[in-house]
Please model this.
Amino acid sequence: MSTIRLTMAQALVKYLAAQRIEHEGREFPLFEGVFAIFGHGNVAGLGEALYHVREELPTLRGHNEQTMAHAAIAFAKANGRRRVMAATSSIGPGATNMVTAAGLAHANRLPILLLPGDTFATRDPDPVLQQVEHFGDPTVTVNDCFRPVSRYFDRITRPEQLLSSLPQAIATLLDPEHCGPATLALPQDVQTFAYDYPEGFFAPRVHRIRRPQLDPRELETAIAALARAERPLIIAGGGVHYAGACERLADFAKAHGVPVAETQAGKGALADAHPCAVGGIGVTGSEAANRLAVEADLILAVGTRLQDFTTGSRALFERDGLALVALNVGRFDSLKHHALPLIGDALDGLAALDASLAEWRASDAWRERAGSLKHDWAEVVARVTAGVEAELPTDAQVIGAVNRQAGEDGTVVCAAGGLPGELHKLWQCSGPGSYHVEYGYSCMGYEIAGGLGVKMARPEREVFVMVGDGSYLMHNSELATSVMLGHKLVVVVLDNRGFGCINRLQQATGGAGFNNLLEDCRTVPEGAPKMDFAAHAKSLGCQSESVRGIKELEEALVRARHASTTYVIALDTDPLPSTAEGGAWWEVAVPEVSRRKQVEVAYAGYREAKRRQHR
Model:
């Protein structure tokens, strides 16, 4: 057997560079590159190894370990989980910074290869800088924090362990059911150890994402349930996008007259102009989708994990007598909420249902009902997003302005706070690829880094990042990365002087305004400073400006479209209003006992709402 002597780190990057992915008859490198912030735990081993493959496996420098991993995750999501990136950090704080990103990827079933540096396997110099010692177990390091938020975890304590662990990590990244973060903790000394690796280990390999086949008995049961339905509703989740099933879903819905509601991850599967598209569903859903959910006699959930925002905390559509069919590639998700499972790929699953259902269609009355509700909701959207001038515009009005300027080639990116809810209700999608909102983990600070990842994946699209002042202040440094790498973003910063979303939730649950809006926080007598976000963004290399009102915003967005580099637009907005229309109940626990009368009233409403929950 022919061998090649390499360090563990050299072998790792050589293997990654040799991986390919086939999609629609074309081959691409599986790994776009490696985001890296070097420290003493990875610079000498992995850093030196990456230098020698920097052309075939580019190394990209981030400014924060969490956000560089977010960018890598967004890249994978925008590529439909078909291409991925790796992220490496030093030991200690660099590693634990990536734990949040791992949690986000795990919650959203998104692939990323995490390569945190680790302490010495030999323990010769223990304790080293940044090492956290566990008094009762010397095998524990901070990298054990990755275990609960990784789909695959290994600590490479011998260089030859790569031979078995690396293929498993890659398989996890590409597994349609178990997709998520794979973590290989890399002790800094083992990165530099050499081993005679088989040359065949580094032969180029072309991967193809498998499509699990449907069980005939489950398919038969699902077909029988659908055939009996007169008032069916489809809920489209992220799995529709990952299976490449958006066009098939559009055809299926139109052929059978079934309205389609979308989760946050599923939004954009259908263009809003499609006759069967009825908008987002659930806590942040449209009035059309939520009414249909209440009235439906069957729900076909496609590629969704049916989390609480989708189901209205199990109170929206889970009731006796309703048939729920869950078409999902994952067994875990297909069995939720007592559904009839149909385990399989969304593309093949919809094709099989379509072929078997033949001439079956929803009732005429149901199709008319869906069309009427869709029309009424469109009028609501047009009204609340209109460019009405006000001293402080609402989130909805800003969304309307950005949506109008985004055009057919625009992609909106957002993550946490009140904006995702308004976007789910109000953003009018041009089709797949036009909507990228991270809301499974609702991670503040994802927005700008996520926009960078989307732009890397889809350079032909104009990427519009919408971010509140709270998220911007948490993580903004990847603006500099976007400028450095030449990946232009249009970033709109909505400054409502605090955490407006949680302020509204605080008061809705009976609480007093406290520690959310800056005016309600402990400050010096002069109050909290007024941030100049445009000046800050300019200092990071961006073009930027501050505007007032919707008219100035729309004019600035035109200038931003014509800019050649990242362009940041800041404007003051009203923290109090949100779109009252649409939506559904969301369970947020309210104190049973309080000295505030408002809390007691909120608790009574909470107990009443819980009676609608179905277990």
